[in-house]
Amino acid sequence: MQVALFSLNATLLNRWAQALSEHDCKAINWTSVETLPPMQPLLLHWESLTLEERGQVVTIAQQRAVVVLTDTPDMVEGRRLILSGVRGYANSYIHNSLLPELLLEVQRGNIWAVPELLQAILRDFIKSRPLPTDQEYDISSLSSRESEVYQELMKGSGNKEIARTLNITERTVKAHVAAILRKTGAPDRVHLIVHGVG
Fold first, then answer.
1. What is the pTM of this model?
2. pLDDT tens digits along 144-164
3. Phi, then psi, of 127 in degrees rounded to 5
4. What is the DSSP string of 42-97?
5. What is the number of helices (H) and of strands (E) in the chain?
6. Which residues have CB under 8 Å from 90's CB, separation 6+?
7. What is the per-residue burial (b if ≥16 Cβ within 10 Å, else e) of 86-109?
8. pLDDT-derived band of residue 133, with 50, 70 and 90 as boundaries?
9. Number of domains in the chain
């Protein structure tokens, strides 16, 4: 699938295209955004957008996999954009090795942002939901390693963080998370965190 790039900064466009050299990248004009196919990945340089164009991003994000890259990431702005439907939020100068990873997550339908931002959103979500009166998901059948992964999940840690903390591979973390969801019957990790036990 083609990846659309928008920035008025030629250096940034070249940097992004090089980092995503295994993908079919195309720099576009703002007027071309509306003609992009549904759910096409679209990387936007926030500082290259006018105030009016920034206002249109939320609408565009309903139809396309929008990633906002900004020179000065801000937690409040990032939270607002993610909650409005933007799939990714990161620094414009994100490391070249991380940009393909970001794109892959977005293409999978996931959200990509720094762990601190995702944890803040998750904490707000948990606070806004009524707490269950009793435990909905039973974790008693988890193995000791699965229990360790579960405890990290309860902290809001992402797969990379869990892998680092427990000194295991990300692939192993994914396998443990899948086993935890299967054994508890939770549909996803958010439900598990909201309705599980600490």
1. 0.65
2. 999 999 988 887 788 888 999
3. -65, -35
4. EEEEGGGS-HHHHHHHHHHHTTSEEEEEESS--HHHHHHHHHTT-SEEEETT--TT
5. 9, 5
6. 67, 68, 69, 70, 73, 98, 102, 112, 113, 114
7. bbbbbebebeeeebeebbebbbee
8. very low
9. 2
Query: Do 104 and 135 fall within a single domain?
Result: no
What are the tokens at 104? 């892959």
Indicate if 190 and 136 belong to the same structural domain: yes
Q: Classify burial at 10, counting beta carbons within 10 Å of its beta carbon; exposed 0-12, middle 13-18, buried 19 or more.
A: exposed
> Cα–Cα distance between 7 and 43 in angstroms, integer?
8
Angle of CA points 116, 9, 64, to nearest 5°: 60
Residue 45 shares a structural domain with residue 135: no
Dihedral of CA atoms 131, 133, 136, 139 in degrees, nearest 10, equals 90
Domain around 180 = 129-195
Instruction: Measure the CA–CA gap between 44 and 50, rounded to whole angstroms.
Output: 12
6 touches 43 (CB < 8 A): yes
Enter the DSSP assignment of 130. Answer: P
